[in-house]
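Can't attach files on this board, so I'm pasting raw text. These are the components:
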Amino acid sequence: METYTLIVLTLAATIRVATPLLLAAIAGMFSERSGVVDLGLEGKMLGAAFAAAAVSAATGSAWAGLGAGIAAAVLLALLLAFATVSQRGNQVVAAMAINIMVAGLGPTLALAWFNLGGQTPQLDGPGQRFTSLVWPWASTAAEHPFPGLLYAQLLSGHNLIVYAAAALVPASAWVLFRTRFGLRLRAVGENPHAVDTAGISVTGLRYQAILISGVLCGVAGTYLSTAASAGFTRDMTAGKGYLALAALIFGKWKPYPTLFACLLFAFTDALASRLQGVALPLVGVIPVQAILALPYVLTVLLLAGFVGKATAPAAIGVPYAKEK
Amino acid sequence: MKLPRFVSILVAPVVLSTAVFAADFAPAIIYDMGGKFDKSFNQSASDGTVRFKKETGIEVREFEVTNAAQREQAMTRFAQRGSQVIVAIGFSQASAVEAAAKKFPNVKFAIIDGTVNLPNVQSINFREQESSFLCGMAAALASKTGKVGFVGGMDIPLIRKFAQGYTDGAKFVNPQAEVFQNMTGTTAAAWNDPTKGGELAKGQIGRGADVIFHASGNTGGGVMQAAKDAGKLSIGCDANQNYLHPGSVLTSAVKRVDIAVYQTIMDAKNGTWKGGPVVLGLAEDGVGYSLDEHNRTLITPAMEATLATAKADIISGKLKVAEYKVP
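---
Top answer:
Structure tokens for the assembled complex are below.
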């Protein structure tokens, strides 16, 4: 019985941890499918996390925070697009520059505005955060382990962004594989010359893809600072942008496999939080260090051994030049 | 032939600047990774410098490290700029203090939560197990489920000391009490990861814990937020954190880093400073649990009486609190 509860709670935590990963990975999918490497996920998320927390603290509205988070990430995305698409700069270098810039800029601005040592004030006023939505009858249902607890913990009790992220997977699959825009987007990542010959603007498509990526990163960052925690702290993305990129590659740049990869990474993370000090059958209590290393070990193993052949979009990382 | 000249060029400005500033008392403090405003350990140290400044009008030089390599650099720079006493906050600065103290034998160093065996270093440590023991008692007394939680920051002996004192205290009140114990990580980043802290707390709450004690610096913000969101109680650490979520923070295991910092700087100013180990516990009022208007309603008179008796017994030695030993 207790094991069952533990499993359900771990799965519920998996959903919470997977949300920002999934949003960022899908963001990266749009950008990379158009042929632009998106190492800047981390920086865009961090920038959005800061802007969302700062605006939410100032205005008292989580929705205003969400708007600011998206705006900040889109601005950073535009900067990236200008450097890499218009000016044909190196995509990796430009993205890393943005990551490093944001890592310093966020705490600096926070220090200047709030004087709290590079953090934003704690968001605990009503409406300053996206709090969990409790579905009807969830507390009554929780008393019945099966299927009540599943309903109460897995379906109910998450915030709005989690549900939005879940809806994003079929939506992005539809856009990418069932619409004209999606077809062109994929084409521009495989063979931009062909797209150009067909009379469609490569630059325009790549800008659109990067903007979509910016919007989604904005939501992911907002989730981190105003839903998962209450305020911005230094380096709060903690490498989630890079992990999202790994999930994207593991998911072979496809929405559903990427969802699976994000859930898997999140599950190992949630498991690591809960396995500490718990005696397992046969092996007993595993040292904390071994458990904390588990997500990373699993990531390396999966990426090295089980991912199979992951074929990146052919034109990825190559700035497009007409005259070539 | 070349080398001595090179050295003298390097040393000359140092000697000069020390001579210039020797008249002014310029204490310095170096915070650790959690940052000056972690509302916990480092902030408590900062409070000590604020008090010193208020009473004497003397500015305290400050530095917040953001990576390990900066520690020794910062100490060296403060020493070169003529600081007579340099306080390093946190166990992870021990090796940097040792190196800097050897380089500048005339500068007084103090380290909080660490031990460096040099004549010009004061090693200030606390008996955290005593305050943790009392907080464990408070947790078990306040818990309705008989299950309480502990979230540590980085997995180091110091934090194990908190964990063990807390567990022993909870079991002292209720031998059947169940204590869930989690560490956030094994690197310094574990002091600054509120998201993970919140996740760990949610996990413990899911398993039935209704009081959660954190000893994790800035990470604790997430722990306390998660407890408040779920309508449970939390216990703060190092600084008095009762005010963060009034009515949801049962108490705080305070560690008077502020007094230690204030005292060592003041002693250095008055010429009464001595190197060597200093250990502060309940008897010296160096540790304790906090009671103020924010948690007045949470601590019942009966609980207060039990805690007061235990405190007196620990001070008198009647009640022995075991100290965590590195296996």
